[in-house]
Write a structure and sequence with these properties.
Elements: H1 10-13, H2 16-33, H3 36-52, H4 56-80, E1 89-93, E2 96-99, H5 100-125, H6 129-138, H7 143-172, H8 181-212, H9 231-258
Antiparallel strand pairs: 1-2
Length: 259
């Protein structure tokens, strides 16, 4: 399956290698610097870019998960974590005491996880899988491995589309797919069986198509798509490398001081 390249925004124009380097640099910056203001800034910027990229509906589930994590982490850590018997008492909710040490620990973990959830979603959701396969091949990964990796992700939307079509067909035949948990479980088998059968048929068709195109041939593989090394890529790579080196150096110096 070939994925059309979208170059409508700066983030979508960047090559997969640049985005992966940005993901690594952003992750290490959040984990190693442990700065709450940096985490807040990255989280807010990621939210703004997600809205700008019109991915709000896809991000909705992750955003709800983030809010749930916020509530549960502060509720549990605040009430349970206590450094000592004389720990600072912050406030109480329905008679349950909450301590400053627990709130600080919840803040520490939440602002390391929540920014990465938004940032990594933004990075990986805008990666073109065809370009990623080309980049992995040019980076030295065996052609077969690169194909398996990218094809595993690209087949998901195909199966999702098949499931929607089969559910619509089954509803037209009178199958009830909405309702309580038991009703949904009863509708699961009549839907999933055709999906799996279609998946096997598609795999066989794809295997035949790959054989006719010489996938198993021993000759050197070539790619039809070139990844342009633009000025935007060079700038983003340079910034990511600086952040990456700074984060690693900061962590090493901090560890040496502790020793």
């Amino acid at each position: 399956m070939l994925q059309k390249r979208d170059t409508s925004t700066l983030l979508r124009r960047l090559s997969p290698g640049t985005k992966l380097l940005m993901a690594l640099a952003g992750t290490l910056a959040i984990v190693f610097f442990e700065n709450i203001w940096l985490s807040i800034a990255m989280m807010l910027i990621s939210y703004v870019v997600i809205l700008y990229e019109k991915m709000g509906s896809m991000f909705k589930l992750i955003f709800i998960s983030t809010l749930s994590m916020l509530v549960f982490m502060y509720a549990i850590y605040g009430a349970v974590v206590q450094e000592n018997q004389k720990d600072t008492y912050a406030f109480s909710v329905f008679g349950i005491p909450y301590y400053q040490a627990g709130i600080d620990k919840a803040t520490h973990f939440f602002f390391r996880i929540a920014p990465l959830m938004a940032f990594l979603f933004l990075i990986f959701r805008t990666i073109n899988m065809t370009d990623l396969g080309v980049w992995m091949t040019k980076a030295g990964l065996p052609y077969r491995w690169a194909f398996i990796f990218t094809d595993s992700f690209m087949v998901i939307p195909v199966l999702s589309k098949d499931m929607e079509q089969i559910m619509d067909a089954q509803r037209a035949r009178g199958l009830v797919t909405e309702g309580n948990l038991m009703t949904r479980m009863k509708a699961f088998v009549p839907v999933i069986v055709p999906v799996v059968a279609n998946a096997f048929a598609k795999v066989q068709d794809q295997a035949i198509a790959m054989d006719t195109k010489g996938f198993n041939s021993k000759c050197k593989k070539t790619v039809y798509r070139e990844l342009p090394n633009t000025t935007e890529d060079k700038i983003c790579k340079a910034i990511s490398l600086v952040v990456l080196i700074a984060a690693i150096a900061y962590k090493i110096l901090k560890s040496l001081k502790k020793i």
